[in-house]
Amino acid sequence: MKNIKIAYWIITLCTLLGFAISAFNEIAHSPKTFVETTQGLGYPAYFLTLLGTAKIIGILVLLVPKYYRLKEWAYAGLVIDCIAAFWSEMAVGNPMASIKSVVVFAFVMLSYSLLLKMERGVNESYVKGPSVTNAGQKIV
After folding, report:
1. Which of 64, 66, 72, 119 has a 20 to 30 Å separation from 91 between CA atoms?
2. 10 Å Cβ neighbour count for 117?
3. What pTM, to 2 d.p., does this model score?
4. How many helices and strands, by DSSP H and E, does the chain display?
5. Phi then psi for 136, rounded to 5 degrees?
6. 92 and 40 in contact (C-beta within 8 Å)?
7. What is the distance, to the nearest Å, from the Cα of residue 71 to the centroid of all Cα atoms in its chain?
8. Which of 55, 45, 66 is nearest to 16 (CA)?
9. Is residue 82 classed exposed, middle or buried when 0-12, 13-18 and 19+ CB atoms within 10 A define those classes?
10. Element (H or E) spanning 131, and its range?
11. Are 52 and 13 in contact (CB under 8 A)?
């Protein structure tokens, strides 16, 4: 369980760092991000602020302990972001740029699967609890 938790946090923090950098560039309307999104993909300028804000909310939800159901919604949002990024790049004829969204998608899904393993471990230990024999000794 400890190894799963360590792997979860390493993968999740790497993933969230990428999303945080992206969110900062979108909210700050950095010149490169602004040009790529508005001119390259054809999205309106206000979409950058909306997308960056949604990413920040998702990041915060994933950093807060517990609240597994809320975390699932955050993961759904990140998956939708990856799919939209992939589809947008493909739609404008830039398949090489869409590779990045596939890699990010893989990180998001790995993080989510580790979260499910951690949740399953927490639920199993809650349901089972320590077993005790007639003599009062714990069974390991």
Report:
1. 72
2. 15
3. 0.82
4. 5, 2
5. 90, 10
6. yes
7. 9
8. 55
9. buried
10. strand 131-132
11. no
In 3-state terms, what secondary structure has residue 113?
Answer: helix
Tokens, residue 50: 């909306």
For residue 100 the two structure tokens come to 């990045």
Residues composing the chain: 140
The per-residue pLDDT for range 58-106, each reduced to its tens digit, is 999 999 988 889 999 999 999 999 999 999 999 999 999 999 999 999 9
Closest CA to 11 of 124, 117, 128: 117
Assign 3-state DSSP to the chain and report helix, strand, coil percentages, each to 5: 80, 5, 20
Q: Which residue type is seen at 108?
A: V
| Contact predicate 34/48, CB 8 Å | yes
User: Helices 68-91 and 98-128 sit at what angle, rounded to 10 degrees?
Assistant: 170
